[in-house]
Write a structure and sequence with these properties.
Strand content of chain B: 25-35%
Strand content of chain A: 25-35%
Strand order of the largest sheet of chain B: 6-7-4-1-5-8
Largest sheet of chain B: 6 strands, antiparallel
Order of helices and strands of chain B: EEEEHHEHEEHEE
Number of strands of chain A: 8
Helix content of chain A: 25-40%
Helix content of chain B: 10-25%
Oligomer: heterodimer
Largest interface: A-B, 27 and 29 residues
Mean pLDDT of chain A: 85
Order of helices and strands of chain A: EEEHHEEEEEHH
Number of strands of chain B: 9
Mean pLDDT of chain B: 94
Shape of chain B: globular
Radius of gyration of chain A: 18 Å
Structural class of chain A: alpha+beta
Structural class of chain B: alpha+beta
Number of helices of chain A: 4
Low-confidence stretches of chain A: 5-13
Number of helices of chain B: 4
């Protein structure tokens, strides 16, 4: 028998397997993490003038802040966002699905301009610092696959 | 004919201005990098990110462009000019159309690009959309939509 425990952030905290009586600290795989990490590593190493003008590499502090933002708004199975470099060390996190669009312009740590454009609904704009609760709801709304669709596909 | 020098602040930085020698019938070119392309199923594949239609930020920050008339007046081929030293795509917009959206179109020569200009204004979401609508491919990036769905 295996027991496990979820932390308050719904992360798997430990696994205890009675057939092999040991505790394992285990973090579930986040679908989005690998590709985001790879992309951010690319963007913090961009050459000056990457945009044909005087675009600079993404600042490391913005890349790090991006990971923290995504950690707070994504589920483990949230699809990877796309990350677009700005020209001044900034970046933009984007999801574009058939249900709508989310764009989070990370100008600096704790300075984010958020745009939510769901299909057939008026768009919302927010200026955010550290509370991304509302954005988590947006992400769920446009990236979550309805249970009925999953069942039908199976 | 070379443009008159742009206005500068006490630090020598070019300040936002609408250059009267850049005419409404002229064209500005906006280079687009492959890094500024997003996937979007609503357009059937890929589209230019909205971040490509924003200013650089800061007190005098604008959206960089190349001034087509000045490039050609200097004897260069504009397509070659905006794809050197590395190949990237580019859009072209009519200056009068851009000014019609309350943007300023000015001159900001740089050491490595004497035909560099800038667009200053409020790059709100609706205005970015208008810039998309005013744009055509000059050096196309295949299968990439300028417009959103």
């Amino acid at each position: 028998m295996t027991e496990s425990s979820l932390s308050s952030s719904n992360r798997l905290f430990y696994v205890y397997d009675q057939s092999n009586p040991r505790y394992f600290v285990k973090e579930p795989t986040q679908l989005w993490y690998g590709s985001v990490e790879s992309r951010l590593n690319e963007l913090v190493n961009l050459e000056n003038g990457w945009d044909g003008y005087h675009g600079k590499a993404v600042l490391f502090e913005n890349a790090y802040f991006t990971i923290r933002v995504l950690d707070s708004i994504c589920r483990n199975d949230t699809p990877s966002p796309q990350i677009i470099p700005g020209v001044s060390g900034d970046l933009q996190i984007e999801w574009h699905t058939l249900k709508g669009d989310i764009e989070l312009h990370v100008v600096a740590p704790n300075e984010v301009y958020a745009l939510y454009s769901p299909i057939d609904v008026q768009e919302s704009e927010l200026t955010l610092t550290s509370d991304f609760t509302e954005v988590a709801g947006w992400v769920k709304a446009i990236t979550e696959t309805p249970i009925a669709a999953v069942a039908a596909a199976a | 004919m070379p443009l008159s020098p742009p206005p500068r602040d006490v630090n020598g930085e070019v300040t936002p201005h609408d250059h009267h020698e850049i005419l409404d019938q002229d064209w500005i070119i906006r280079r687009i990098s492959a890094l500024q392309i997003s996937d979007d199923p609503k357009v059937g594949g890929k589209r230019i990110s909205s971040l490509a239609f924003k200013s650089s930020g800061g007190a005098n920050g604008g959206m960089s462009v190349d001034l087509r008339q000045q490039i050609e007046d200097a004897g260069h081929n504009a397509e070659t000019y905006v794809t050197t030293p590395r190949w990237i795509g580019s859009l072209i917009m009519n200056v009068g159309g851009v000014r019609g959206e309350a943007f300023l179109v000015g001159f900001h020569p740089l050491g490595d690009n004497p035909h560099h200009g800038e667009v200053w204004g409020t790059f709100s979401s609706p205005k970015q959309q208008r810039l998309r609508e005013l744009s055509q491919w000059f050096v196309p990036i295949p299968d990439v939509s300028i417009l959103t769905a």
